[in-house]
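User: Continuing from earlier, I have the next pair ready.

Assistant: Great, send them over.

User: Here they are, in order.

Assistant: Folding the first of the pair now:
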Amino acid sequence: NLKKNKVFDMFAFRQIFIKPSYFSKCQFNHRFISSHTNFTNIYDNQVMFGRVMLPDDANVVGNVHGGTILQMIELTGFIAAMRHCNKENLPNPLFAALVRLETMDFLKPVHIGDLASLSSRVIFSTKRVMEVSVEVCSENFHTKEKKVTNKATLWYVAINTNSEEIKSKTWLSGKPKLKALEVLPEVSGLTSYEIEQGKKRHLAMKDRRLKEEKYQMTWRQNIIDDQRYTFPSIQFAQLALPSDCTPSGLVYGGVIMKIMDNAAAIIGVRHCKTNVVTASIEAVNFIAPIFNGDIILVTARAAFTSAKTIDVELVVHSEDPASGERKLSCTATYTFVSLDNLDKTQNIPPLKPITNEDKELFARGERRYLERKKLREAKKIEENK
């Protein structure tokens, strides 16, 4: 039965893909099962994924790296999006491409030895873009404790690339031409109220993305190679390999977010002189794709500190090794907290702006911090009603 349901030996610590019917039969991870009332209707865009967290997933004190969680979230969302965009069996296969991750908080830590279970499904779709909801839950085998650690919303578009073209294209022979298509099917089984709410979320997303683009234009180029800033910064490069890419030849958004998380964590560790963990991520907009064989260039700079958090702004470019052409891929802001020896949050040394550019960067981060604080307070009030 285990092989029939495509469940790998848990004691071998391999990743598992389980049909929803298996979850319902064995009542495994009942928290997710209880949140969905009808697997028959949503199986086409429903994904359940999980694996045991291993030592190579961890930071230095045994918490699972935030970048690892991000990569798992995006992989699970990608599978759900792939199922949905190929639902109608078009002549050529469609591939999902991540265009946005909404602002996300890391609610609870995941530890080595825990089972991380992810549930994703497409909750709304227009002809052009899909909204995918992902929930992450961790389970401690010893204590049987289960907790929700992350809730994420991702937006994907569908692209059409001939599979033979993908195999033939390399950075030496040119990249395949990609175009977002307006062919996505509707999500079946939604009520009129759910459709109306989905349309509102879609319009709100487009409005936020437009505002963020205008806002980020003022800073994303300036933090690169700018000697007027004195705040800690780091730059590094990584070659995109086939293992980092989807079948369409695009680097997974989760891979890019993990690289950004690594860069931002280095800034946090250097500044705080302690272990740091990812607390939240501002919305990430993916502007241009990165292809197999491209060089991924990451620039990260500390931007703001509150009493217990540090913000790191990041800019990612892709570089074509053949032509040397660079394109802006995405920008992001990661927020970290510092942990003491008991894994409790502690105060962070303040950044001290010196130049006018430092002061502008810090002020921008402070505005962002106050906006986040206001939104969280409003959310708590709404939840308590």
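And the other member of the pair:
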Amino acid sequence: MSAGNGDKFTEVFGRASELNRKFQYNAAVPQFLRARDLAAAKADQCRALDGAGLAQMELGQEGSAYKNLQEAELLCPKNNPSRLTALSNLCDSAEESFQYKEDAAALLRELVVTAMKEEPENVRRVFSVLMQSIPAHSAAASFLLSGLEDDDPVKGRDDIELAKFYVGVAREQAVQIQKVVEEAGSARSHLIPVARDMGVEPELCQARLSILDGNMNEARKVMQASSTIIEEATLDVDVRFMAGMLSDKVGLQTEAVKALNAVTEEWEEYPDAWFYLASLYVSMQDFQAAEEAMLKFQRCDLGAYHKGGNRDFDDLMQKILDGKRKPRNDLSSDEEDERIRTEIPSF
């Protein structure tokens, strides 16, 4: 590459990065791709392709994102955890997805060790790497746990000990990030809530492990200890939904209701949350709340619930009908059943 081309790459890549920082992804993508065309060194080509691919993910352009990120991975394999994490979410194959998750976690473990050995230790650098590493290890653990829970593990990855390894690393790093915050000086107050939130997913994974091991008492203790943090933390709705389900499984119904209601407050059209809430209210004998949750469930995009009918839906509806069978003074039992069925449309 001539000096002129090198300067041009730096200029265009810098412009793309600035647009990206301003969340102007539509404008950033063509600049990143232009920078890729200007780059001669593999490392620069990868930086530009990574920038384009990750920006395209933000735009929902998953096909183009996968193409650019995969090209970057072929050029510079296993050197960018953000790329590896993105590819794990974009690829179709479960085996391939898990391999990317493993690669991301392994790279981040190395980066954590390297960052902590820097002299003087760069607190912000360590914090930043741990922020990537904790969710990466939690994601690898969760992927394995989901397969073990459904009795459908990824081929060759059905060893619960491997899941325990990832959970163990995630929990250990969640403790590390708290210690890093203590050394953050004036930035400490801004980092405390972030570090707190980082500890939630590892604890949920630990609770799932305990349930798989048949140790419900341990799972309950983990969820009880985490309940206040879960309530206060800023979490992805899927993580909070998992917290609600786990709280219910270990008998913490009040905490489960809080978590699931928080999910529906953030995302009103989350059918699984409404359906689970309805089921939970039935188990609590609160049939009025169950009926209201089912009404909200019916207003969601039900998609998969319609395919081939839904036995769970029918069973839950029957439980609500049975629970509300006591008629109003002016209605017979049959008329009361008809009123409920009319208010909650069936499939």
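Worth noting for the second one:
The CA atoms of residues 69 and 290 lie 45 Å apart. The longest helix spans residues 123-149.
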